[in-house]
Amino acid sequence: MATRKAPTPPPVGTPISEYNRPDRKAKYGAKWKDSDGKRKFAFFEKESARNKFIKDVRRKTHKEGMAILELTSTQAAAMVKCLELLGDEFTVIQACQEYAKQVSLVDITAKEAIQKYQEEKRAIGRDANYQRAKRKHFERMEEVMPRKLQEWTEEQAREWALVLTRGYAPTTVKNHIRTGIAFCNWAIDRRYMNRNPFVKAPVPDVISKEVEFISVDTMSAFMECARIHFPDALAYAALNAFGGIRSSACARLGFESIHFAQKGILIRADIAKNKARLYLDGHPDNLWAWLDFALYHAPKGFQLTKRQWDKRREQIRQKAGIQMPHNALRHSFCTYHVAMHGDAGRTATLLSHKDDVNILYQHYKGNATKEQGKAYFSIMPPG
Known about the structure:
Blueprint: E1 17-20, E2 28-33, E3 39-44, H1 47-67, H2 73-86, H3 89-103, H4 110-123, H5 128-144, H6 154-165, H7 170-189, H8 216-229, H9 234-242, H10 247-250, E4 258-259, E5 264-267, E6 278-281, H11 285-297, H12 306-320, H13 328-341, H14 344-350, H15 357-364, H16 370-376
Antiparallel strand pairs: 1-2, 2-3, 4-5, 5-6
């Protein structure tokens, strides 16, 4: 027979009384209110056990009450003043506990804590793009939040979030708040602060926009312009547009990452977004046609830096006289690949997004026809 767990007694000084429930097996009860004013109960099968529980609580209260007589007049006056200011003994205790936490914190400025946080992120391998984005977030925080980290409050965090909504898109505001939450959780772990002021900051609703991609004719014009005027950009243009490889990853791939014989692409863990090694194959034939062409005509194109590739992409756009929405090459790959194959799982595998099939359908299905998909992946170099 399982042993009945002994009830947890209420805090010392809590008024307690009898409370019976004839409909229960353990019908002899005691009731009281906790520090939040919520009713609490304890039930016993024997009346004697209930009476002993109540007697013990009252005896302990009396014992600690007698200890009050040993307080000095100054201590007693301080307690009376606390009760006048805060209202009741439970609030006084909570305030004292909160103050004890506060005085035990490490005294540090927000700037110093942010610097330590960023140094730690660099040490664990966060890339330059991540660090640059976070640096902007922290600069905007420091413009409005107090100099001392311990003085940051929920009200200030809410005001900061509301100010951001007047000048930035909802997604940007959401990312700023996430940075604040992550940083303050880190600071709490190191005893720099005792509560996270950003957890109640208002997060704006992010409404998904239609993805923007380019037409088959526009893509043809882009590749033709690159072939004639900027051949050193062909390799990364092809990887981005016909392989779905992220722009940032394209510029970190070297010639050794392109396995022409096996028609596969190796993305090492140190350059992958999720820091996991990827080997991708099953790409459309026109990707390999363009990569072969680039290898023969512009082998140095496999050595562009991220900055050089971004500059070349913009130069091609201007020279060709076309409009290029943000991330248009990768979005175009997704749109036309889903349209041609009707299999978001297949597309997700090439994008290393195996768990995001529903998201691919949500954003890309129906944006193009199967015929348009076939035409897109029929864009080939001359010869």
